Amino acid sequence: MKLFFREYGQGQPLIILHGIFGVSDNWVSFAREIEDRFRVFIPDQRNHGQSPHDSTFNYYALCADVYEFIEEHNLDNPIILGHSMGGKVAMRFALENPDILKALVVADISMRSYQRRYRHLDMIDAMMAVNFDKAEKRADIEKQLKPIIRDKRIRQFAMKNLYRRERGGQFAWRLNLEAISLNMDAVFEGVQSNRLFNKPTLFIRGGDSDYVSYDDFDQIYRTFPKADIKTIEGAGHWLHAEKPDEFRRIFMDFIQSGL
Description:
Layout: E1 5-8, E2 12-17, H1 28-34, E3 38-43, H2 59-72, E4 79-83, H3 85-96, E5 103-107, H4 118-128, H5 138-145, H6 152-159, E6 162-164, E7 171-173, H7 177-182, H8 184-187, E8 201-206, H9 217-223, E9 227-232, H10 239-242, H11 244-256
Parallel strand pairs: 2-3, 2-4, 4-5, 5-8, 8-9
Antiparallel strand pairs: 1-3, 6-7
Helix pairs in contact: 2-3
């Protein structure tokens, strides 16, 4: 699948994979902060942003998209950074293709399976229920989302997926909400592999997030023998947006430690 992407800078190739409901735009600020050192690629994953829609939505397909992306752009020894769902894609890709990557960075996700998270399911329900016929401006859409998505930051995160259709100018979602909804159980699946990724690996977790617990450390270290796990205290799941300076510092310390 030919993915839409944003590109910044020159140097060591770095691919950034966003999480569920995310878009490449979520990582532009981070990319611009490091573009003097890296050639940064931020694709929209399938069924997200401006990339194509497809009814197939699982980690096998997402990893295949990354493989095709690397080949298409002739990237040599790229680093992959993945957040949340993107982190699971990054882990699976690294384990299946260890010779392709130089290093791996995983942001606030572990290898285990997760129980269905009602925050995600509520977001889908709220977004699918929006009546665009009654939405002349973005504030009208936010008003419809608010009863279910009460957290303003999460509402704004969801609304990054809005665009206006060329024909008629009506708002619409870029997300393929139907495909994502039908495949949410696959998104919550764990990373199962008997392989090892024996190259430099960094896990960054949010201190206020429950996505990576101390109970996950053993499995991480066994599967990624060269892993280092860092915690950003006071940060939740969207740690790169909540504590951008600290996230960037930890990332750059990892890069400068001998890659």
